[in-house]
């Protein structure tokens, strides 16, 4: 008989919390860096880090999805409706993330230059694929970022509701501390 999985494994837990911190960081840095003055010493440094960390997050997210398919995941706790909404919210979070990676790539590469990831490898440009690519992708990137942060906030509220109101294992299984 297959053993019931009661909590997330440490790889999933590490990737979840690391991704959460990185996403909030990218959001804050993104908002700050677009208003930087040309004479600021951060003018080129901040976007370089934003793009390098963003693309590293993309690699980590691809690995996370692969890991999710090979590793048994614990059941989501709650009614049928709650399970469906939690699963849909998780799927939408992943979709928004890929929307951000693609739009971020399109903003950065419209001038024909590739993206330098930590001065270590260059992701090549495909050039300008459509008119006003940088502006359109920039606008989409901004909307997607706000939507993702809004949804992540709701998601965190739901996790706290499970923990403090229903007093179930939802949050504990993502912290790796359930005793079962
Ligand atoms: C492949 C990954 C990513 C790349 C290449 C990338 C690239 C960029 C670039 C080039 C800008 C400047 C846009 C402009 O000058 O108008 C930007 C802005 C921004 N990015 Fe990203 N980004 C990535 C991932 C992310 C992620 C995961 C988030 C998370 C929420 C994020 C949040 C933001 C925000 C909030 C802004 C400011 C938008 C604005 O106010 O115009 N980015 N990004
Ligand atoms: C930017 C921030 C965050 C993002 C993008 C995010 C994303 C996700 C995703 C995609 C999953 C599904 C995992 C899977 O693939 O199966 C998940 C699960 C989970 N997250 Fe987050 N999360 C964030 C922040 C938080 C915070 C702040 C909390 C708690 C306060 C939290 C608590 C949980 C819990 C408890 C689960 C497990 C849900 C279950 O299996 O029932 N997350 N998160």
Continuous helix count: 5
Ligands bound, unique: protoporphyrin IX containing FE
How do the strands of the widest beta sheet line up side by side? 1-2
Q: What share of residues is helical?
A: 55-70%
The total number of structural domains is: 1
Question: What is the overall pLDDT average?
Answer: 95
Q: How many angstroms separate the termini?
A: 18 Å
Strand content is under 5%
Structure, described:
This protein has a two-stranded antiparallel sheet. Helix 1 runs antiparallel to helix 2 and helix 2 runs antiparallel to helix 3. With 180 residues, it is mostly helical. The protein has a single domain, classed as Up-down Bundle (Fumarate Reductase Cytochrome B subunit), CATH 1.20.950. The protein is 67% helix and 3% strand. A hairpin with a 3-residue loop joins strand 1 and strand 2. The site of one protoporphyrin IX containing FE has 25 residues, from helix 1, helix 2, helix 3 and helix 4.
């Amino acid at each position: 008989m297959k053993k019931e999985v009661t909590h997330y494994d440490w790889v999933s837990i590490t990737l979840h919390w690391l991704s959460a911190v990185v996403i909030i960081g990218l959001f804050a840095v993104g908002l700050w860096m677009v208003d930087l003055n040309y004479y600021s010493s951060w003018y080129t440094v901040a976007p370089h880090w934003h793009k390098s960390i963003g693309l590293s997050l993309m690699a980590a997210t691809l690995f996370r999805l692969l890991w999710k398919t090979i590793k048994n995941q614990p059941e989501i706790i709650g009614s049928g409706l709650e399970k469906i909404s939690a699963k849909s919210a998780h799927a939408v979070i992943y979709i928004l993330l890929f929307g951000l990676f693609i739009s971020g790539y399109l903003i950065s590469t419209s001038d024909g230059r590739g993206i330098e990831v930590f001065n270590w490898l260059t992701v090549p440009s495909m050039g300008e694929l459509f008119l006003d690519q940088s502006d359109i992708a920039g606008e989409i990137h901004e909307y997607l970022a706000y939507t993702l942060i809004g949804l992540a906030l709701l998601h965190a509220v739901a996790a706290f509701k499970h923990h403090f109101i229903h007093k179930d294992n939802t949050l504990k299984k993502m912290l790796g501390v359930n005793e079962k």
